Amino acid sequence: MIETSKVKLSSRAAGGAAFLKRESYMLEARSCIVVAVAATALASGCRSAPGYTDRDVDITEADMRARIGFLAADQLEGRGTPSTGLELAASYIRSEFARMGLQAPPGGYVQRYRLAMTEMGADWSLALSRGNRRALLALGTDYWGLPWAAGTVEGDLRFVDAVGRPGMRETGEPTIWVARLSAAVLPREWLAEAADAGAAGLLLVLTAETEALMSHWLEVGETLYELGDVEPSLPAALVTESALAAALERLGLEATTTAGAPAGSGVRARLAADLRAETLAAPNVMGIVRGSDPELAEEFVLLSAHMDGLGVGPPVDGDSIYNGADDNASGTSALLEVAEAVAALERRPKRSIFFLAVSGEERGLLGSSWFVEHPPIRLDRVIANINIDMVGRNWEDTIAVIGKPYSTLGAIVDSVAAAHPELSMTPVGDRWPQENFFFRSDHFNFAREGIPAVFFFNGVHEDYHMPSDEADKIKNGKAARVSRLIFEVAVALANAEQPPGWDDAARARIVEDGR
Ligand SMILES: [Zn+2]
């Protein structure tokens, strides 16, 4: 909770504190007024004289504390995607961008994307029968539900061994397809095939080899979020080869028939799929500081940070709000502070700077995936992406910049840091290569599009993805200095003679192979 007395906010800050006391009412009301109050209180403003010394670019510890304190307040309930708390954060960022004078890209400050939410219920059942024999399979050991469609289907079992057999159409009695998973055919391809052919349901057989393919299947109570709308689909399940063989044996058939019982083998299946599917919507918030050079203003340096968090989850020591102060109220606040500093410059950099606060990152980089698929600007005009994710913890004077060796961006960051010893902030390389962090935040979606990208990150810590990732643990001074470094890097890129370039090997691996 912001104890406004601690931040440098003026008496208007008291308004903010009063807001938090009335939180339950205000949240209901989604009151933008309150967001505006908090925002203006923070607007101590930046200066504009070129040649940016400390007294010019006023990104302070107090600013970071106030912004992180607001975004990570319990009232925003960890900013899960989607949620009321996330919408409040988005309104706050949008009104801040407008107050700072950032231009709205085509389509406006807010881009909304749809996501399909599928929650696995507990009332699944799967039974095979043949004549008066019946074999019940056990959920969670013999089979797992697939998050595709709810409903109960019953029909003849049809073993299908190849996709794309022309003319394969179900015309008679409802049938439930059985197909062995292989590396050649993805589960969704079988789904499309079965649906096209008019099957009523689908069982995918997990062999020992293919078990590795399915990295994770949903357990009861788990929820899956995917970009787009909930698509009409078929009830379906994953069944292990051994469980299917045992069931067929109990029905008096050879165990070896999992490869394909002859048609008319009289085996029927009944599958009850219990899941709740809904199409939801979530926001990305964007703003542009237009460049000063008539030509180069058509090129963009894109700064990004995810504003979402884990939301409300399993309680730990009685606390179920995953406040996400470091992950990623810190990065979102850095994005806002840099935007404010750039927007206040009298002499703007030559290129434009695009500020992007995405959501859905914790759900699988959803917001940034949607952005690169539906960009309001031409992506081939984006010369670099600087992503900011977790910059308020760990070392006092050091920040990791993941992706440095992959393009000349790394050298640019190092030279800017060297030119600003007053920030005492050392950018180091990836200290945890085994963690594959380059692939685990939003910049990866830009890198895959061929845009050189780096990501400012302080490493994980004991509060990472825990309810205890609270604002009072943030090193606001450090976060301010990291933000100041990012400001300098962004401006240097926006004024650079040449855009940054990829290291060829890295480009081949990340852009071509996406790995
Ligand atoms: Zn994060």
UniProtKB/TrEMBL annotation:
Listed GO MF terms: metalloexopeptidase activity
Domain Peptidase M28, first and last residues per copy: 284-489
SUPFAM superfamilies, alphabetized: Zn-dependent exopeptidases
Protein origin, superkingdom: Bacteria
Pfam families: Peptidase_M28 (PF04389)
Gene Ontology biological-process entries: proteolysis
InterPro entries, per the entry: M28_fam, Peptidase_M28
PANTHER family: METALLOPEPTIDASE M28 FAMILY MEMBER (PTHR12147), PEPTIDASE M28 DOMAIN-CONTAINING PROTEIN (PTHR12147:SF26)
Name this protein carries in UniProt: M20/M25/M40 family metallo-hydrolase
Source organism: Candidatus Kutchimonas denitrificans
